[in-house]
Amino acid sequence: MLGFLALAQTVVTTHALKRTSDERRVVLTALRAVGEEVRSVADEAADTPEQWSQSIVDAVASGGRLGTNFTVRGLTPQAGETTVGTIEIVTDERRTDADLGVELGMPCDLNADGTATDANVSSDASLLPVVVTLRYTGLAGNRTVRRGFFLSRF
Prior knowledge:
By secondary structure, the chain is of the alpha+beta class. It has one domain (about 1-150). The chain is built from 3 helices and 5 strands; from the N terminus they run H-H-E-E-E-H-E-E. The protein has helices at about 1-45, 50-60, 95-100; strands spanning about 70, 75, 85-90, 125-140, 140-150. Strands 1, 2, 3, 4 and 5 form a 5-stranded antiparallel β-sheet that branches. A hairpin with a 2-residue loop joins strand 4 (about 125-140) and strand 5 (about 140-150). Helix 1 crosses helix 2 (about 50-60). The termini are far apart.
């Protein structure tokens, strides 16, 4: 009898670990896919260097090619939300890592003018920080996962 209970506990634990592993795989795959889509937009925008940063900002704006929000198959939005993910292109050099919720080394000079004080570099940035955020209800309750990375015009 004791052996049967131990076996049952092992099966339940293994099943829970598999579900957690599956959830993590979905999250990491979504972050990677969105990052690749944003990088693809940046690569296409490189054909017109004078409009590079504005093209990316426009693509990620509401109603743009990518938009600011997205869904992820296999993840449930948190209560009161309609989507799981958001994409933010940072154009304010004064924003801090604490404000963004991810370590990128901000504030940072994004338009190579020698200062990190510009409030909007969307038209002349040569470096753009991107923050992808997933907010979902998972096996352990409400979860928020952020990934930050840079796009470079060069």
